[in-house]
Design goal:
Blueprint lengths: L4 E12 L2 E9 L5 E10 L10 H14 L3 E9 L5 E4 L2 H4 L12
Parallel strand pairs: 3-5
Antiparallel strand pairs: 1-2, 1-4, 2-3, 4-5
Length: about 100
Amino acid sequence: MMKNKKIRGLVTSIVDGNTFEISVHDNNGNGEIDKHIEKIKIHGMDKPAVSTLAGILAKLELEKKIVGRKVECEILERDGTNQLIAVIPKKYLRSPFEFNPDQDT
């Protein structure tokens, strides 16, 4: 388990309704920047496969919320395919278009 390890990056693409890719720029300690893409599966989220209409809609919904945004996630582990499993804060998953009458504008 990789508890308390965080990853930050720009969401570049959505794989499906619970998986996305981010571009990560890490300082490697030698004054150089390590740029790479990480695939992240959102822990606790189980959306239908993109081969179904519901899966396509779930992918589009996630795309609407986070693509093009910088996000920070807490890494839990890597699975057998070297994909990260991470917790993403709920603030990123709220739609920017939701109406909240209690929120100041």
